[in-house]
């Protein structure tokens, strides 16, 4: 795989998810804002693109056997995986993080008032993500599965929402909102760095929030950069059947 300054970040990460670590380390958003070139992203961050290219080349030259090739998966399998792996993770971790965060705010917010805003942002994210995932599970993902079946049988399928692009645009907008929300949480928490006076609960809470954001990055990447673009292409191919 040849990587240049003109390579599109989202396409690169879709081909080899290992490259995501390079963008993470350089604080470059590859999931919500991945539809731009490496050069554009580096210019915005004031990073030398040649340095980033070297890091990327090093990553892709390493053994790839342990890397999951999500890009090769059938769309119905990918939708199932996202729902069973990432949606369940979000539901479970929201219930785990909320009581920890409430306790930390109660005990430490007098000395660390930023915790109140972190708690507010996480509460908003939990509420919006829960509604967002239900829309995918009840509306978008079932239609993607029907399109896969239609392709296999050579039949047609009618989208109840006109075109699959309509819900996809809404889902991507909501992804952008969550990405921005967690950028704020990361900034307020100094990239999830507990202060010197943090108790064990404080440290565990920040570790869970960091893990939650990292899972969300992969979750959004799989949808924005692989599932959604391929669903649009599949729909177009079915129209021409």
What order do the helices and strands come in, and which of them pair?
Blueprint: H1 9-15, H2 20-25, H3 38-45, H4 49-61, H5 75-108, H6 114-153, H7 165-188, H8 200-239
What about the largest sheet?
Answer: none
Instruction: Give the total of beta strands.
Output: 0
In N-to-C order, the SSE pattern is HHHHHHHH
The separation of the N and C termini measures 33 Å
Shape: globular
Q: Report the structural category.
A: mainly alpha
How is this structure best described in words?
This protein is mainly alpha-helical. 71% of the residues lie in helices and 0% in strands. The protein is built from 8 helices and no strands. α1 (9-15) crosses α8 (200-239), α5 (75-108) packs antiparallel against α8 (200-239) and α6 runs antiparallel to α7 (165-188).
Characteristics:
241 residues, mainly alpha, 8 helices, 71% helix, globular
How would you summarize this macromolecular structure in one to three sentences?
With 241 residues, the protein is mainly alpha-helical. 71% of the residues lie in helices and 0% in strands.
